[in-house]
UniProtKB/TrEMBL annotation:
It comes from the Bacteria. The active site is at E224. Belongs to the AspA/AstE family. Succinylglutamate desuccinylase subfamily. It comes from Alishewanella tabrizica. It catalyses: N-succinyl-L-glutamate + H2O = L-glutamate + succinate. Residues 265-338 form the AstE/AspA barrel-sandwich hybrid domain. Zn(2+) binds at H63, E66, H160. Binds 1 zinc ion per subunit. This is Succinylglutamate desuccinylase. The lineage of its organism: Bacteria, Pseudomonadati, Pseudomonadota, Gammaproteobacteria, Alteromonadales. The gene is astE. It is an enzyme of class 3 (hydrolase). It holds the Pfam family AstE_AspA_cat. Transforms N(2)-succinylglutamate into succinate and glutamate. Keywords: Arginine metabolism, Hydrolase, Metal-binding, Zinc. Residues 54-249 form the Succinylglutamate desuccinylase/Aspartoacylase catalytic domain.
């Protein structure tokens, strides 16, 4: 019944949103031979009869109000289920937080993207749906990657949108690699997605992309596609290149990509994170100040009780400023331009 519905309509997102708290596993095979398994609400696995060397996880809706990537992934899933897109790689698609998507909110109780790498079970433990979901998503990603002993290339692209506008509308966060070189080929792939701005994290994080990178050796990124808008209000033409390039990866039709040239990129080092320590945390710039804005050295950025945070370095720019985060969490990332011709592989 569900299988037939999905084959006809391809509406896995609608099915997910109708069952935000869980969906019984089921599986079926499309007439083109692609095997489909639903592992849970928002969790769908595809295995084509012949597949290449790439194990690809596409995730979206880790934050419920970041709708452009949800629309993009829902379209890809629909096209696979209705056999318009002939998959050539193993693929796991995740709609991260269905209950938050239904509410049109970033989170229900807690920020899901701060709960990975076991953070879901720290402190009070698995006390809410987001903590349980983070743990379940880790299990699904592990199951997907551990399918075979043979070495395969693992990817995870976690698609988001930023709360604010951004001077560079599309950008990626490259998780901390613990001193390993950044991958040129992945930067070329991002450029093909029309993502030319990359932030290099310098420390471990509790995000989904860091988890996939660190725990599974995946090439993993958080990719920001524009600004938060309600469903139906996204100009998807702005993400057409990301859509086309991801589909080319899935169908093994990616053309040879232009070679990495540092001139094509804005690369930034994440130089420091400012964490909120008290309820008095306050930003000293307007809500419409965009990501990547920089101010002269000494400018007051934020106060937290008696603590003042000022611009420390020439060219330092602000990313993801948000005074509403929970105490203890990052309220701004500060980045500085970097040249990375060395330390690439
Ligand atoms: O615009 C914002 O303030 C947040 C947008 C967003 O959700 N970004 C991710 C980035 C994750 C990472 O650092 O890799 C997040 O904050 O979870
Ligand atoms: Zn997000």
């Amino acid at each position: 019944m569900i299988a037939q519905q999905l084959r006809d309509s391809g509406e896995f997102l609608a099915l997910t949103l109708a069952h935000p708290d869980g969906l019984s596993p089921c599986h079926f095979t499309l007439s083109n031979g692609t095997h489909v398994e639903i592992w849970d609400t928002g969790v769908i696995y595809f295995q084509p009869p012949q597949y290449g060397q790439h194990d690809i996880v596409l995730s979206c809706g880790i934050h419920g109000n970041e709708t452009a990537p949800i629309e993009l992934c829902a379209d890809i899933v629909r096209d696979i289920l209705t056999e318009k897109l002939l998959l050539a790689e193993r693929l796991l698609v995740l709609f991260g937080n269905p209950a938050a998507i239904n509410l049109g909110k970033r989170e229900v109780t807690e920020n899901l993207n701060r709960l990975f790498s076991g953070h879901h079970s720290k402190g009070a433990g698995l006390i809410n749906a987001e903590r349980q979901r983070a743990k379940a998503l880790e299990i699904y990603v592990s199951r997907f990657y551990q399918h075979t002993e043979q070495p395969r290339q693992r990817y995870l692209y976690d698609l988001h949108t930023a709360i604010r506008g951004s001077r560079f509308e599309k950008f990626a966060v490259y998780p901390y690699l613990h001193g390993q070189p950044w991958r040129k080929q992945q930067l070329e792939f991002l450029a093909a997605c029309d993502v030319h701005t990359v932030l290099l994290m310098q420390s471990a994080a509790s995000t989904f992309s860091y988890y996939a990178s660190n725990a599974h050796g995946a090439d993993a990124f958080t990719i920001e596609l524009g600004k938060v808008r309600p469903f139906g209000q996204n100009d998807m033409r702005r993400f057409a290149q990301a859509n086309t390039t991801l589909r080319a990866l899935l169908t093994a039709t990616l053309p040879e990509l232009p070679a990495f040239e540092s001139i094509d990129f804005n690369i930034y080092d994440v130089y420091r994170a400012i964490n909120k320590q008290t309820q008095d945390f306050k930003l000293h710039f307007a809500d419409d100040v965009e990501n990547f804005t920089s101010y002269p050295i000494g400018t007051l950025l934020a106060t937290d009780g008696d603590i003042e945070y000022r611009v420390e370095r020439e060219g330092e720019a602000l990313i993801f400023p948000n005074a509403k985060v929970a105490i203890g969490q990052r309220a701004i990332l500060m980045v500085v331009p970097k040249s990375i011709t060395a330390h690439l592989k």
